Amino acid sequence: MKKLVKDIQNRSLYLTVLGSGYVGLPTSALFADAGFHIIAIDIKPEVVKTVNSGASPINELGLNDLVSRNVQAGRLKATLNSTEALTQADAVIISVQTPIDQNKKPNLSFLMKALEEIGNTMKEGMVVVVSSTVPPGIMLEKVKPKLESLSDLKADVGFYLAYVPERIAPGKALKEFVESPRLAGGVGPNSTKIAAELFRTVCKKVIETDAATAEVAKLAENTFRDVNIAFANQLALICEQHGVDATEVIKLANTHPRVNIHTPGPGVGGPCLPKDPYLLIHKTKLGDQNIIKTARQISDYMPKYIVRITLQALKHIGKNIKNSKIAVLGTAYKANIDDSRFSPSGPIIQNLLSLGAKVIAYDPYCSEFFNAEQGESLIETVKDSDCIIVATDHPEFKEINLSRLKKSMKNNPIIVDGRRIIDSVEANKVGFKYCGVGYGVRDEI
Ligand code: SAJ
Asked: Is 395 exposed, middle or buried (0-12, 13-18, 19+ CB in 10 A)?
């Protein structure tokens, strides 16, 4: 163990990162920048080619420069050949996806495949770190026995195994990787120490715990946020029934020093929040009283709600959805990113298309349009439309010139503000029918 610590400290440890996606590539680039020799593994040839050419295949602030610098310095290289990379490595960080299936059950096939490869090539003293999000109990019940049986080595003695969950959000991944406290939970005390030592070379603060606690803590973070957003969404619907503005209500409630209600919106997207709550409750016995599942259902309802208020607004001015052109602003799941995974814009657009609307979508960052027509610019997208739906809170949409928009739209134009970023007073003054999440009196919802 002493040698391992020394190898970490003087950066002579050979590190490989299995999976070069939104989390894996920032991991590889940051460890390379800390002085380690990194081999980044991926199954996609285009990802490997791009990284080896010195560029980032992902649009993440600062990542392109970091990849370029470390590829040039010879500290970072990517490969498709996982067996070769793993055979050379002293340590591996697993960063593969752990999605949920159609029945909301975890799909651990990518993780299991990674473990299979690692177990088959593992040498004594190897450090294995799982950073993919996993359901509680997986490290001790599945990961440890699988690696032990394949390698014929004992965890925490013959090799070191820890869960070090990632806590980064797309758009600020590099900053958060370094600055957010990181949990290191080993399957035994030696594994915790080694994993913490390794991550301290990049992260400012590493907190030592055990694998089982780290698993639940990681899921608790995202589930807490998901439940909070669902509360905000439900509160928005309550506010409408009382004829008060949810934005103002939340702003006022949050002046209480111990209250922090999140922001209502058109739904909750991204690769983590829609799935992690299901990982947390996987195989638990909670009966019917399940706040986590209910919260998920509330937020899953929000895209339908956006479509319903659109239909209502159109009906109100005597228009039919079938003959209407709807401009959807934003396909990314949140502001300032080009990531559309599980974006609420997907179900909103699909629902509108199935109702016979003509849908055109515009996003200054994203290239996914969910079968809507692709708008080339904001002004071209809204041209001759009957209704605008603001689905993403990109800064560009906060600054739109309402008078200019109105002129290029059809008569009696509507704004459905899913993010509450448009000034409602101004919109009404200019001549829009303004509808927003948690704004105004609404019935029939
Ligand atoms: N959203 C709201 N209202 C809010 C906040 C967010 O409707 O008040 C929506 C967003 O628009 C988006 C979704 O929720 O559609 C999720 O956005 P997010 O910024 O909360 O989450 P992610 O998925 O980008 O990143 C989260 C982060 N977790 C927490 O903030 C607790 C990040 O730190 C995690 O590392 C990441 O999940 C992960 O990988 O688990």
From this structure: exposed
CA distances from 61 to 49, 226, 363, 409 (A): 20, 25, 18, 35
Residue 445 has a pLDDT of: 44
Residue 441 Cα to ligand 1 midpoint, Å, equals 29
- CA-nearest of 167, 115, 175 to 146 is 115
Strand 160-163 with 182-186, pairing: antiparallel
Tens of pLDDT, residue by residue over 371-388, are 999 999 999 999 999 999
The answer to pTM > 0.85 is yes
The answer to whether residue 272 is catalytic is: yes
State the residue for tokens 């026995």.
Answer: 145
Is 406 catalytic? The answer is no
Q: Whose CA is closest to 439, among 235, 255, 294?
A: 235
- The finding on whether 150 has its CB within 6 A of some atom of ligand 1 is no
Q: Which atom of ligand 1 is nearest to the CA of 23?
A: 39
Q: Mind listing the domains of the chain with CATH numbers?
A: 2-209 (3.40.50.720), 293-444 (3.40.50.720)
168 CB less than 6 Å from ligand 1? Answer: yes
263 lines ligand 1 (CB under 6 A): yes
**How far, in Å, from the CA of 169 to the mean position of ligand 1?**
7
Q: Are 176 and 168 in contact (CB under 8 A)?
A: yes
78 DSSP 8-state letter:
E
Q: Is 136 helix (H, G, I), strand (E, B) or coil?
A: coil
